[in-house]
Every structure is written in C-alpha cells, then in structure tokens.
Amino acid sequence: MSPRSSKPHETVERALELSRADGCVVIAEESSTANLRWAGNALTTNGVTRGRGLTVVATVDGAQGTACGVVSRSAVTAEELEPLVRAAEAAARAAGPAEDARPLVAGVPHSPDFADAPAETSSEVFADFAPALGESFARARAAGRALYGFARHEVVTSYLATSTGLRLRHDQPTGTLELNAKAPGRDGGPVRSAWAGRSTRDFKDIDPTALDADLARRLAWAERRTELPAGRYETLLPPTAVADLLIHQQWQASSARDAVEGRTVFAKPGGATRVGERLSELPLTLRSDPAEPGLEAAPFVIAHASEDDASVFDNGLPLAGTDWIRDGVLNRLQATRHSAELTGQPVAPAVDNLILDGGGDRSLEQMIAATERGLLLTSMWYIREVDPATLLLTGLTRDGVYLVERGEVVGEVNNFRFNESPVGLLSRATEAGRTERTLPREWGDWFTRAAMPALRVPDFNMSSVSQGV
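Above: the chain sequence. Below: its structure as tokens.
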C-alpha cells in the first residue's frame, strides 16, 4: 500500500485505535510546495513537491508520574503505522516521568472539516505572478540590471487527534518572495545590489513589477557611494529589519521560565521578571493573534516535541490574541501550562505570527523625508546573540545602506557590523511608522507571518565597517 493511499484523518483514527498507552496524541501533516527560481533575468527551475509526516505522542502513567514518548516519521504506510505507535509507547515506558506532564487537553469542539481532504497548492498559484515576473525580466534586461530570486508557496494541513476526544484541523498557506537586483558598479566600483522580500498567503497581492521598480531606484541611489566610519548614527530600520530583531527577542528571550530562572533580559533578581516594566516611551504594542487578517495562524497548539516554550501535553490548547508588550509595557511572557505553574505567570503559548503596532501612520518614505541626516538600512543577516543577559545581538547589514541628508537619499554607504539589543532599541526609538506586513530576511525560512513599522533610532551602534555587499 502506498504512503498516500489512506486519508489523513483515517490514519490518525487508526493510530488512536492501535494505541495501548494511557494517553495518546496523533498529529498528521500533509504538505505541498510549489516553487520558482530565477537568475540573470531567466527562470531556472520550478516544481511541485508533496510530503506526509506523522507524529505519535504516547503517555504512560506510573507511580512516580506520567512518562512520555514521541516518535515522528515521514511517509508512513499502513504496514508501518502499528510499529510507529508501539515505538512511541516503548519510548514512554523507557523514559522517566515527564517534567511537563499535564492532563491531555479535552473539551475543545471538533473541527467541522476534520474528515475533508487536505488543502493543496500547485503551480497555478503563480498564474498571475509568473507573467508579471517575465515582464520585470524584460525591463531589467533593457536597463542593464539582472534579477535573481525565488518564490515559494506551501500549504500544510495539520490533523490533530487525541485519546481525550480532540479532532482538530488547520490549513496553513505560506508564501514567500525574495527578489535581488544587481548591476555593475560605476567606474570599476563594487557590484551594486538591492533586495526586497514579501510574505503572502496566495501571491495575489504581490506585484513583481512594483518591486523591480523599487529595486531599480535603490540601484540608482547606489551610483554615488560614500565611505563612513563605524559609530552611532541616526538610523531608519525598515519593517523587515525590525521583524528580524523582534522575532529573535520573542523566540529566544521571552520564556517565562527562563526569565524566572535569571537567564534572559527579562529577568529580575530574586526570581522575578520584568513583567509590568516600561520598555519604551512610545506606545508600542507587540502582539500575536491567530486570527490576524492576512497573517492567520493555527488557533490551537501543535507541538511535536516538548521544549522550553512548548509542551506536547498542551496539544490542542486553544490560542487567542496575546499582547506581549502593551503600550510600551512588558505585559506577558511565553508560558506552557507547566511553566506557567512553575513561574506564577499566566498560560501564554507561542503563536505563529508577530505584530508590532506603534501608533504611527507615516510611511518609510515620509520618515525619510523628515530625516535631516541619517542612515537607511535595507536588511540584516547573520544575526547572532552575544549576551543573553542584555539580549545583545551582533550582525551585518546587507544589500544597501543609504545616506539620507535633508530628507533625501543621496547615495549608498559601506556596510557595517552592528551591536544592538532589541530591548535597548525599543527603549531608545523615537518614532514608529505605519505597521505593514513584511518578510523577515534572517528568519524568513522559518517565520514569515510578521507585520512591523519602520523605527527611527537616534544612535544605532554601527560597531565596525563590513566589506560585505
């Protein structure tokens, strides 16, 4: 029997029937992916792939507590299903009591479409996008620039069923576009490069010709180049850069347990946290909401493994809108049911999107026009943590840093290495622009659902000059 001969909901039901454990969670995921790649103003590859994964979580009660075993495999056939279930049970019996053990979630309404076929994508998702991309190739070729990049669209359907009666399903479309334009340097100078990225659910809201026009403008800015030394500069961070920094903050430093144990920037002496402390004088609200229009995410926990900020025992737990920072004040830290009990913090599982609202309504162009002298970044990459106690990060600017004087971009400058903390930036930011959907560049392979404003920082620390492009 082929791996795809059974329906996903039938697979999870059969796995539950086979289970001999005291508790069982089964997660089946069906995925399909369509992609386009191009280089030098010509398509190079395209294709569609499909995949299937199955995770079984078995729990076994004992005198010392509840143990847990988790086994995940891909392309599981009907013949391989029972051995997979038995492997999860064996792993549970061989393990000690799980620290995060809690009763499995129950009482959540069933998804009405649980038994429906999985959603799928295909090359048709690019039906309007591809011809417009071809037009962009022609314009770029005529103007002496070359376009490189890729477009990717994935749909994942998750089926989650438990021995406590949950039958939940979620369809998650995820689309990303990265477009890079290159042109020869002037008078033997370095190659000019500009980048743009977008996230989307269906590619109907992406206009490659408009993106190409924006990249052409940036390449024109780069015709004049000025070398600047390291130092602190008033800097405009575009939404993509803000997203990269705050995603790092949210996913690496916002655990309630880590804060209580003194391991993050949000810790206070004596096992306390900084919840309730003002982080910014701007009315910044950092939030997640599974129902956010255009950034919709799973409305319940889907956990394939237990980690600091996730617990397999929480699978199926409903998710709601959460303000992590509210009006500039730290409001909530991420907590599973287990870590919430340990720390005294409210239960606040992670949600697969992140939005920063700053109360501003100016576009990035308007913020440029209001700048006497400063730098405009394009994006960041190779971001790494230096000091968890302050969340000090280091990284490089990429694909264009521009000098702004008297409200106009007057040329490109060299790239820099920076040393900054997202928490410190929030405290020093003097303006937040209009919030818009954006694609984080550093985190874009993993986290795509973000909406951020541009931020004005009066003293961004460009710690050294970088020779990168």
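The chain has nine helices and 22 strands.
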